[in-house]
Design a protein that fits this description.
Number of helices: 9
Order of helices and strands: HHHEEHHHHEHH
Keywords: Membrane, Transmembrane, Transmembrane helix
Protein name: DUF1614 domain-containing protein
Number of strands: 3
Transmembrane segments: 6-24, 31-48, 54-74, 86-105, 111-130, 137-159, 165-189
Radius of gyration: 26 Å
Largest sheet: 3 strands, mixed
Organism: Candidatus Protoclostridium stercorigallinarum
Helix content: over 70%
């Protein structure tokens, strides 16, 4: 959970000092609500897990992210993005489950590869399907939760002794995935704005050139007086 906590800590500091307030307001979440979400994720990450003989559930990797998913999904749905967010959640969940089953849960290298692949690629896929910042963030949380459940069910069916929810790098995958999705969203929106600004500038330039040409070709009454008038 170290990588996720570091990223959340940076975001919390930026929010506390107001450096990221305008960004999250534009995102569709007030800065104070975002700060509470970040704080809840950090606190959940350091809370003890719920454990029985054959079942383990972490607060930071499952319980808090589930609440965050519902919250962000509702906000995305209010903007008319519910269906695309659900599709993005399914896509991100499939990737998460696939990467977990490929990399395994027994080695540090495998866990690192899992959260990096799920975070970076899953975040990009979530944005590609959702098409919005909030939708992609919701899809990352929901997809990681769903992928975690599915992959652990498969591993349990193939002999794993304990069914674990919210463990084995899923927390880091969620946070890296959100960061990846939001960074990609900003890059795409910046590119769109740049293209739109260039198009508008080109249209204005064309209009100005046309006006200048029309003005130059317009007959001047003084010329008629000098060269053709009585």
């Amino acid at each position: 959970m170290t990588v996720g906590i570091v990223i959340l800590g940076i975001v919390a500091v930026l929010l506390f000092f107001g450096a990221a307030e305008r960004y999250f307001d534009r995102l569709g979440m007030t800065s104070w609500l975002t700060f509470l979400v970040v704080l809840a994720l950090i606190i959940g990450a350091v809370m003890p897990e719920v454990r029985t003989e054959r079942f383990v559930m972490t607060v930071g990797g499952f319980v808090v992210p589930a609440v965050v998913f519902v919250l962000v999904f509702v906000l995305a749905a209010k903007n008319g993005n519910a269906l695309r967010t659900l599709l993005a959640t399914v896509a991100a969940g499939a990737l998460c489950a696939g990467f977990r089953l490929i990399t395994g849960i027994t080695t540090t290298g495998g866990l690192t590869a899992f959260f990096l692949l799920t975070g970076i690629i899953g975040g990009a896929v979530a944005f590609a399907f959702a098409g919005s910042r909030l939708g992609s963030a919701a899809a990352v949380f929901g997809g990681c939760i769903a992928g975690d459940i599915v992959s652990m069910a498969v591993l349990r069916a193939y002999g794993a002794s304990v069914f674990t929810l919210g463990g084995y790098g899923i927390f880091d995958a969620m946070i890296v995935g959100c960061a990846s999705a939001l960074i990609l969203a900003e890059a795409v929106y910046a590119a769109r704005r740049s293209i739109e600004d260039r198009r508008i500038a080109a249209e204005r330039l064309s209009a100005e050139v046309a006006e200048d040409a029309a003005f130059e070709n317009k007959d001047d009454p003084s010329d008629n007086d000098l060269y053709g008038g009585d």
